[in-house]
Amino acid sequence: MLSYVKLFYYLLRPKTVFIRKRSGALGDDLLMSLVLPFIKKRYPEHKIIVEANWTDLFFNNPYVDWVTDKHLKTTRRHIKPKYYIDEKTKMSLYEQFMTSVGAQGKAYPELFLTDDELNDIHKRFNFPYIAICPHGKQKFSANRKEWGMENFQKLRKYFNNYQFVQVGLKNDELLDGVHDGRGLMIRQSAAIIKNSLFFVGLEGGLMHLAKSVGKRSVIIYGGFINPEISEYEENLNIINMVECSPCFRSYKKMTVCDTMICMKGISPDDVAGKINNHFRKELNSIKTERQTHEN
After folding, report:
1. How far is Cα 293 from Cα 87, in angstroms, rounded to an integer?
2. pLDDT value, residue 290
3. Which stretches does DSSP call E strand in 56-198?
4. Do the bridges between strand 47-51 and strand 16-20 make them parallel or antiparallel, or are there none, so unpaired?
5. Is the separation of the CB atoms in 208 and 186 below 8 Å?
6. Distance from C-alpha of 113 to C-alpha of 58, rounded to nearest angstrom
7. Would you place residue 292 in the very low, low, confident or very high pLDDT band (cuts 50, 70, 90)?
8. pLDDT number for residue 293
9. Domain extents for the chain?
10. Mean pLDDT, the chain, as a whole number?
């Protein structure tokens, strides 16, 4: 009840700007953070209120005065960042988000973790590790983002000398030979990724979460979406565009793909080799640390 009262107060307050969620997805909520510095600069005297499903993403954000999962009525002071993706889309969703609120150029999501949050996770996983999530969100995209548990398990075996922490939902299937970080609050998952050497996963919400805490990633793209639309250039993006690629449409729910030829064309051997090359510095740091302890 109190949150509704506070929301009603801000709706009546003249100098208030509302940033409204595009959908209930983790990634879409997190991407709202990229427009916040611009909004704050445009309206320096206004209170900035974010309406989101994943309210935790905006805690400790210096550009937000209040965040709520409630929504009463859309007004002229509501800003709803938008993007549109089909087979012909060329502009990245980051540029689309910025353009939709009257800004120019690219910006990227940010999540502001506290030292206490990072230290709490470090106490739980107090060793060097790689963060991993072998599962995607299938409610909207069906199986089209999935590389498969078997492939992720083979990839994990290539790096037997390294420890892994798996993040994700509590009911996600757990890989063999990993530490269990599933089922935690989203900020705890972000802290696990932040404290890791790098993150391994699929295109989607956790990819954006890793970017928001400044961590590079290995992202299995396949051919679901044109990588130029959502990729982060510093990541190792594993792409396999085939004749039916890209199949993602932001305006409709995806159906199950029977062939999955784009994902089947990506082998764990190839991914492991690219990881060894792309993240050589991070992986070598663990070897050096082991040698130091042995000596």
Report:
1. 52
2. 59
3. 66-68, 78-79, 130-132, 164-168, 179-182
4. parallel
5. no
6. 10
7. low
8. 52
9. 2-100, 115-294
10. 94
Question: Buried b vs exposed e over 60-76: b needs ≥16 C-beta within 10 Å?
Answer: ebebbebbbeeeeeeee
What CATH number should be reported for the domain whose range is 115-294?
3.40.50.2000
Asked if 30 contacts 208 with a C-beta cutoff of 8 angstroms, the reply is: yes
pLDDT in tens, 84-132: 998 889 999 999 999 999 998 889 999 999 999 999 999 999 999 999 9
Residues 6 or more apart whose CB falls under 8 angstroms from that of 32 comprise 19, 21, 22, 50, 52, 81, 97
Q: How many residues does the chain have?
A: 295
Predicted TM-score (pTM) above 0.90: yes
In 43-120, where do the E strands start and end? 47-51, 66-68, 78-79
Under 8 Å between Cβ of 197 and 129 = yes
Quick check: 107 and 98 in contact, CB under 8 A?
yes
Q: How confident is the model at residue 295 (pLDDT cuts 50, 70, 90)?
A: very low
Query: Coil, helix or strand for 284?
Result: helix
The structure tokens listed for 226 are 């044109």
How confident is the model over 236-288, as pLDDT tens digits? 999 999 999 999 999 888 999 999 999 999 999 999 999 999 999 999 988 66
Contact 193, 175 (CB under 8 A): no
User: Which 3 state secondary structure label does DSSP give 167?
Assistant: strand
Identify the CA nearest to 226 among candidates 247, 246, 243, 242: 246
Please report where in the chains the tokens 């037997």 appear, as a residue. Answer: 160
